[in-house]
Structures are given as structure tokens and as C-alpha cells.
Amino acid sequence: MPKMKTKSSAKKRFKVTATGKVKAAASGKQHGMIKRSNKFIRDARGTMVLCDADARIVKKFLPYAK
Question: How far, in Å, CA of 8 to CA of 51, rounded?
Fold first, then answer.
């Protein structure tokens, strides 16, 4: 059986933790920061864990992530 392919876009955007949760960077921070409130910029710093429904979709794109 050939190996399954990983979606290249998913492997660039998501990391899977040792416990199987999916981490992702906050959205909405690429441009237009002048419009955003300081609270939004502060809260969107760093990475966050996706909810289970979103993580299930991402894991289909990353077949070899545990």
C-alpha cells in the first residue's frame, strides 16, 4: 500500500500535541491591525488549541500526526 499524502497547507499551519490536541495560530492578524482593538491583538497573541470539531477535520489532513 502506498503512503497517504499529507496536505501541505495543513502541515504548515497546525501542530499536533503529544496528547493529540491540535494547536493553531490565531486568525485575523496578518494585516489591518490599525482597525483592530488592542484587546483583540493582545488576545490573539501566540497559539491556541482548536475545539474538537475543528481538530477532527484537521487530523484528516495530517494522517501521520498522532
Answer: 21
